[in-house]
Design goal:
It is a single chain. With 453 residues, the protein is mainly α. It has 19 helices and two strands.
């Protein structure tokens, strides 16, 4: 027993240290520059009125763009909790306290996301989940933080026990703060927790107190978020670049035009849109029929992660931004990805119990090697990004100290720019201005982009 505790402690410490180093060197990019400048303070002083209701996410990004200690503590702790709570969920699903194997699987499931960011998918951005969440601080505060909070609720809801006043108080608080990071997460928290309450009451004629308290918290959190004036402006059609809501069908048309070109035949665009809609409708019908059967047979626990995934995606149809070239941003699927991981782990665990799959020493060694490879790959990729960011900052600071009239800003190499969302958005005038404000570069200084290659 003591040996297992020591091994777990080593894994925990390694996770914290790994992500601590990762975030210590991670450079700021894109929206980080705005939040870390006077723009962020102005939004805070205005209580984010007319901007958005992501109060927690906004405050956290303002904080970590100004304090290295805050960045280290918040980011490394959040990523540790993500790995830890996934491991606890795996323990519960497998009913085997195989801490080492489950922890390796949880850790690997996070880092494996870096692989699609390295593969050349071109502009098909939905594959770039890691670079827009774990690898980008503005995405991290809005998506990684609430995902951990929701997975904590999932763990409590899926396991018996934990019925005490302190857990109830925590779940109310958890529900409130989970709803203050991004809009569709707020809607999801209410939908999912209410569904669990309804399911338990329908079958067992009793109230699931844990879900009820989380629902109460998420209801309050959603009221706080959507009380922001920006959402009333959306309804009136007064939408600026920070309050984007052109609608689901509009974004589908944009996606079609991205694939077929801006001058694509309207009939082709309409057919493409119809095919996508029919495909989605067919999947939803199939899924809900299967879910209904599982609901009636009281076998809902096997489908719970998949239901989470679908319910998590549905609010995107309402709150989706259609400004981008894809239907929704890749970071929107951060939580859904982990729901899929949980679902497949459940299927894997069921087969394992039936004796078709077993964790022998060779399998465990293989898992450790896979995790080691992912750690090395992540380190190599982000070392290049971090080093370029370091050289960029050093070059700019030197130019400012010597009062150069022209400031050279190094661009990230094309091979790694996609591992951090908006790292090279500096080529756009809006982001160039944000970078100028972030680095306090005087208006009379000319900014020139130079290649790092």
């Amino acid at each position: 027993m003591e040996h297992k505790i020591i091994k777990k402690t080593i894994w925990y410490l390694f996770t914290v240290v790994f992500f601590g180093i990762f975030y210590y060197f991670l450079p700021f990019a894109g929206d980080d520059w705005a939040w870390g400048s006077q723009t962020g303070i102005n939004r805070l002083n205005n209580a984010f009125s007319g901007y958005n209701g992501r109060y927690l996410g906004n405050i956290l990004i303002i904080l970590i763009t100004r304090s290295v200690v805050a960045k280290l503590v918040l980011c490394s702790l959040t990523m540790f909790l993500l790995v830890f709570i996934l491991c606890k969920i795996f323990d519960g699903l497998s009913k085997e306290k195989n801490g080492t194997v489950n922890y390796i699987l949880a850790f690997s499931s996070v880092l494996v996301l870096v692989v699609p960011n390295q593969i050349a998918f071109g502009e098909l951005q939905p594959f770039q989940i890691f670079g827009s969440t774990v690898g980008w601080l503005s995405g991290f505060t809005n998506y990684a933080v609430p995902s951990v909070l929701i997975l904590i609720f999932y763990y409590f809801a899926a396991n018996k026990g934990f019925e005490n006043i302190w857990v109830y108080i925590f779940l109310v608080f958890d529900g409130i703060v989970a709803c203050l990071c991004v809009e569709h997460y707020s809607l999801f928290c209410m939908l999912f927790s209410f569904a669990v309450v309804a399911y338990r009451f329908y079958h067992y004629k009793r109230i699931c107190k844990k879900s009820l308290f989380f629902f109460s918290g998420s209801f309050v959190g959603s009221l706080i978020m959507f009380s922001n004036s920006s959402y009333r402006l959306m309804q009136k059609g007064d939408v600026n670049e920070n309050q984007r809501a052109v609608g689901f069908l509009g974004s589908f048309k944009q996606y079609a035009k991205y694939i077929f070109g801006e001058n694509a035949n309207e009939t082709l665009v309409a057919v493409f849109t119809a095919v996508l809609l029919l495909s989605i409708a067919a999947f939803l019908i199939f899924f809900f029929i299967k879910s209904y059967k599982a609901f009636k047979s009281r076998n809902i626990i096997n489908l719970l992660p998949m239901i989470c995934l679908v319910v998590m995606t549905l609010p995107l149809l309402v709150t989706n931004s259609g400004k981008e070239i894809y239907v929704v941003a890749p970071r929107c699927y951060f939580l859904q990805y982990f729901m899929l991981v949980i679902y497949f782990f459940k299927k894997f665990s069921d087969k394992n119990k039936a004796g078709r799959i077993s964790f022998d020493k060779k399998a465990v060694t293989g898992l450790k090697l896979c995790l080691a490879a992912l750690i090395v790959l992540t380190g190599i990729l982000y070392f290049n990004l971090d080093y370029t960011g370091y050289i960029r900052n050093k070059t700019v600071d030197t130019a400012l100290d010597n009062d150069y009239s022209t400031i050279e800003i190094i661009e990230y190499p094309k091979g790694i720019e996609h591992i951090q969302w908006s790292s090279n958005f500096i080529t756009k005038e809006t982001y160039l201005e944000r970078y100028r404000n972030f680095k306090n570069i005087p208006k009379d200084k000319e900014l020139v982009l130079v290649s790092s290659e």
